[in-house]
Amino acid sequence: MSLLRRPSKPHPVFRPLAVAEVDPVAEHAVSIGFDVSEMPAFLDYRAGQYVTLRALVGGEDVRQSYSIWVPPSRARREGIIRVAAAAVQGGRMSPWLASEVEVGEVMGVLPPLGEFTLDEAAGPRHHVGVVGGSGITPVLAITAAALEQHSESTFDLIIANRTRASTVLGREVADLEAASGGRLRVEHVMSREAVDGVRHGRIDPLVIRAVLDDVGGPADVDDWWLCGPEGLIADVEAWLAGSGVGVEHIHRERFTSTGPVDPLKKP
Ligand SMILES: Cc1cc2nc3c(=O)[nH]c(=O)nc-3n(C[C@H](O)[C@H](O)[C@H](O)COP(=O)(O)OP(=O)(O)OC[C@H]3O[C@@H](n4cnc5c(N)ncnc54)[C@H](O)[C@@H]3O)c2cc1C
Predict the structure, then answer these.
(1) Is the minimum distance from the CB of 261 to ligand 1 under 6 angstroms?
(2) Please, what are the domains in the chain?
(3) Is a pLDDT exceeding 60 seen at residue 266?
(4) DSSP secondary structure string, the chain?
(5) Which of 60, 257, 261, 266, when mutated, tests ligand 1's pocket best, judged by the most ligand atoms within 8 Å of its CB?
């Protein structure tokens, strides 16, 4: 074993960044953009990573993570990273982000982190994303980057939401699908609104099998991307395991709270 110590990586620090744009991306959800054109540490990220935001909310120092929804190529072109936050009822940071933050607000931002990421060296792949609510955020960046990566890669995206209005980044998903030349197929599943041509209910194995009908079974998919409510991820993971899909094909991100949550404290 070498006695030489490796130089330790610099400890990431929160950088004060001013909000450059705020755009609604669903009811109770916004996209927040930060101009990082002069900050390579923020542009050198992999599709699927997140940043941690730190702000004083109601006098409390709160830190939470939010995934970047734009692919790295677009962020580098425009010099802007964009995250999307959906308000969680009773939450400390997300309702503040979704309804109070304005352009010019300065908050602490940690450079991108996370292992729920696209393998940039992989060959052409068939990807399937299964997401719920704000879980679309990292998967949208992964989808765009995967389609850019190989002209033969394809993506099936199954998205659960309550209603059309609550569908986070719905317009951005539709734009990507329209520009994909048929390589991205999107299946929306809505639990609280009946819409012509849209599946009603919840995502279950029958829905996933129907979407994959013409491309094979679950074991024919190269990469599964799961992000959303705990129950959805657990159900799909259990079904994939029972269908013989190896863990190396399954990627998942859980949006559990990163900050300390005191259940006795009133929000
Ligand atoms: C790696 C990572 C990436 C993330 N990316 C995103 C993203 O792109 N967009 C996004 O909107 N959120 C994302 N989240 C979730 C986000 O970090 C916060 O946890 C969420 O916004 C709630 O924070 P809060 O301060 O409003 O709620 P808190 O004050 O932390 O929590 C208040 C209450 O809500 C519950 N709660 C916390 N989070 C959730 C949740 N997601 N769903 C339901 N109940 C919850 C808590 O248990 C608690 O009871 C991500 C989380 C992680 C760990």
Answers:
(1) yes
(2) 15-109 (2.40.30.10), 126-254 (3.40.50.80)
(3) no
(4) ---SPPPPPPPP--EEEEEEEEEEEETTEEEEEEE-TT-HHHHS--TT-EEEEEEEETTEEEEEEEEB-S-HHHHHHHTEEEEEEEPPTT-SSHHHHHHT--TT-EEEEPPPB-S----TT--S-EEEEEEEGGGHHHHHHHHHHHHHH-TT-EEEEEEEESSSTT-TTHHHHHHHHHHTTTSEEEEEEESS---TTSEES---HHHHHHHTTTT--GGG-SEEEEEE-HHHHHHHHHHHHHTT--GGGEEEEE----S---TTS--
(5) 257
